[in-house]
Design goal:
- The structure is a single chain.
- It contains 22 helices and 21 strands.
- With 555 residues, the chain is α/β, with parallel strands linked by helices.
- It has a six-stranded parallel sheet with strand order 3-2-4-5-7-6, with helices on both faces. A six-stranded parallel sheet has the order 15-14-16-17-19-18, with helices on both faces.
- Helix 1 packs across helix 2.
- The longest helix has 19 residues, at 328-346.
- The radius of gyration is 25 Å and the shape is globular.
- The chain starts with a strand and ends with a strand.
Amino acid sequence: MQLTVADFIVRQLIEWGIDTAFGLPGDSVFPFLEAIEHNNKMKFYCVRNEAAAAYMSSGYGKIMGKPALCIADAGPGSINLLNGLFDATNDGIPLIAITGQVPRERLFTTYNQSSNQNAIFNEASAYTATLTVPEQTGRILEILVKKALSERKAVHLSVPVDLQKMKFTGQILPGPVISISTPKVDFSLIKKACELISRSKRTVIIAGYGIKGMGEEIAAFAKRIGAGIIVTSVAKGAVSEYNPHVIGVLGEAGNEMAFKIIQEADLIIIAGSTWWPEKFVPPAAKVIQIDINAQHLGMGKRIDMAVMGDLKEIIPAIEQELTVKADEKWVEEIKNAHKQRESFINSFETENGYPIHPARLMLALEKVVPKNAVITVDTGNHTLWFVSNFRASNQDIILSGMWRIMGFALPAALGIKTAQPQRPLVALCGDGGLMQLLGELATAAQYQLPVLIIAVKNVSWALEGYKQLLEGYSLTGITFSDVDFARIANAVGVKAVVIKKAEELELLISEGIHANEPILIEVPTAAVPAPELSRLMGTVNTFKSKNLKPTFISI
């Protein structure tokens, strides 16, 4: 059967289970969009900026574990995809980008919108290629998808517009395109790990993204060996933070209790994490790292032992081999640290000042958000407060972990909603981040995607301001003019409300979560530094929207 190259690509991707696409029309992708239009098995969502298409694809991949497609025109359209591809690649998320390209005879010339796309996309993706003849299509597409799935990164295909329209006889290959096997566990290493655990009295587990889907097993393991659990930001929700062994996070969003506990540890088990703050790890403590990916082991940090394999296989094997009993004194210290964190978080329940304290907002959100919800979180000062103070209990928390994009939360939420429409979904956005892709409010309205958008408004680049102060710099470029997000949202068809007092938070957030349409809640907040930054600064600092000079306050 003769198909155009564009038709073949669409049909082959659908056969392999890739049925959702985000993007913008442009003359170098018209044939490709036409192929999607004529195939009712692939759904296309039109965005307002190509960057949003890539963020939607990344969010989709983070929740589904399989790639979505993002599509962009040649030239500036393709360049707008880059941040989203960097996000997916850095966070280990499969994503497929297809970009149009100028006709082949105009490649690498001064023709308008001509660029060396493969050179541009090389660092952001595991694989980038340009189709040059129709006969390459099937093989290159197979390599592309296999790379995305096996390496769990973004991949990119550039297709000249003249080639998209050409016909050829291609064979659609049946799925699945790849079966991924896990590395075989070396059980001699299990015994050595057990020896280290048995000799230790004060163990801490740093739980990363790799523990998702096995939170109960990690919690039971921690109880068995008497260990404290510190979660990384991307692992929030994998283990209930109400578990008495969980003591919070480390780093900029950390807390004093977690810092104190890890400083006293004699063994640290890094479970499924590529990131941990090495400066917090005491030099005398032994470090065991467990990860399914050999490339994640060590990564320039000190480890005493590495065990490669699936945590779902390794943790039960360790438990079966162990005879050690938990150190009761250490467990008591862990539980006391957990209680201190609880007391700190709960102390903001009566913090009803205005603008709203960010900790009060996080407490209100925690109270009313369902356990089956998805929360996407932007990058900014509010992120630190969320990671520090929101106690996740089985919700899926989605953020830009390594690349740390601003403007990620809203489009990521929209992408996730297309994949899992029945789940409650909250996009927690800072005002700085929301302004970067404000047009996607119109996308939410166009497709009537029921997402609650919380605009955390402190009228400043607060996190950068605190870092400037912390590093001894003057406050430069930190404040900006006020934006009426509620009015803008209403103008594009999204219902919106402004919080007038803290006592309204729970009711309005609950109503927004359960609405059957997109809702925006604007929350004027104080620009208060998160606990770890406060500890480092020695004071607490807030920026007032009416007063550009920082005002020091206490909480």
